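Try this one yourself first.
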């Protein structure tokens, strides 16, 4: 019991430090990623390690940013030159736990983006499409805080491998940000019932740009998730359904630099995400949709009415 109190205290201290770091940065510079892609990286328990071994996965994410918003309200589309940003992500990845305490994960994203915007000089609507490699993520994983691997940290970097020079796209709508980012995450599983049929997951991730290019500085972002899930509804051997309900929050600051749009970036969002995991032997299929409950957008920004996720994984 004393060991668990120490773990909980350590986790809380780390979370306070993480939030303090982020709020300090926000108050000093105000800068953030336009698309808010980090929200896809939290709250997916299927992607967090629970045993040693290697997991291969394919993840599909989709968002259609076609509604212009200002502050907490819908804003007239005429207030924003950008009209549509439709993005599909296909991420291929591998996660290997060398031991029950230490592992690594590599994410290789392929991105397809459709962008519609009005040329300010000619007032004509332009339509642009681009498909390219996105920004690769490499993260180390440490789960040695407890024997059941219920608490872990993930730490690594986002590399500037994504395209940043597609014609017609602004720097904040390019597939790649051109930046090298620090990635830091903490997660914790807890049992909510004595029989451990009901459980919860808490996760927080920080994405902080360190090195930037083209005088475009994408902002830091903090993403949080809290979810409640059943351990598995089982009707057949080795087959289970795991329902989950999550709250996700994304805090972003504004971009800056001469190629950033500081007045029209930066946001606060709270989303609800019902999801379902289907597992059979070593296979897992997970899907959810994030629906906005609260949104505050600086200036005028395009938002999506839903974020869709689908993951297929296999554990060796």
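Now uncover the answer:
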């Amino acid at each position: 019991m004393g060991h668990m109190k120490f773990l909980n205290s350590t986790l809380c201290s780390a979370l306070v430090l993480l939030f303090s770091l982020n709020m300090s940065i926000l108050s000093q510079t105000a800068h953030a990623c336009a698309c808010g892609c980090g929200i896809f990286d939290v709250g997916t328990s299927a992607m967090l390690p629970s045993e040693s071994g290697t997991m291969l996965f394919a993840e599909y994410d989709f968002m259609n940013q076609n509604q212009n918003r200002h502050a907490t309200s819908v804003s007239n589309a005429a207030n924003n030159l950008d009209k549509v940003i439709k993005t599909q992500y296909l991420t291929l990845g591998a996660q290997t736990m060398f031991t029950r305490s230490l592992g690594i994960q590599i994410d290789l994203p392929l991105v397809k983006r459709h962008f519609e915007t009005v040329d300010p000089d000619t007032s004509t609507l332009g339509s642009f499409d681009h498909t390219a490699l996105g920004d690769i993520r490499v993260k180390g994983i440490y789960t040695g805080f407890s024997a059941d691997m219920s608490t872990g940290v993930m730490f690594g970097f986002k590399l500037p491998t994504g395209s940043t020079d597609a014609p017609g796209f602004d720097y904040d709508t390019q597939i790649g940000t051109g930046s090298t980012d620090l990635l830091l995450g903490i997660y914790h599983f807890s049992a909510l019932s004595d029989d451990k049929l009901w459980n919860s997951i808490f996760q927080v991730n920080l994405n902080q740009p360190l090195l930037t290019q083209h005088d475009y500085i994408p902002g830091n972002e903090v993403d949080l998730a809290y979810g409640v899930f059943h351990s598995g509804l089982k009707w057949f051997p080795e087959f289970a359904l795991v329902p989950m309900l999550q709250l996700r929050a994304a805090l972003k600051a504004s971009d800056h630099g001469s190629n950033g749009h500081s007045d029209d970036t930066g946001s606060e969002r709270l989303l609800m995400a019902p999801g379902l995991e289907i597992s059979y032997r070593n296979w897992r299929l997970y899907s959810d949709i994030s629906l906005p409950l609260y949104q505050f957008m600086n200036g005028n920004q395009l938002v999506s009415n839903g974020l869709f996720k689908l993951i297929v994984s296999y554990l060796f």
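Discussion: The domain at 2-315 is CATH 2.40.128.130 (Lipocalin). The chain has one domain: 2-315.
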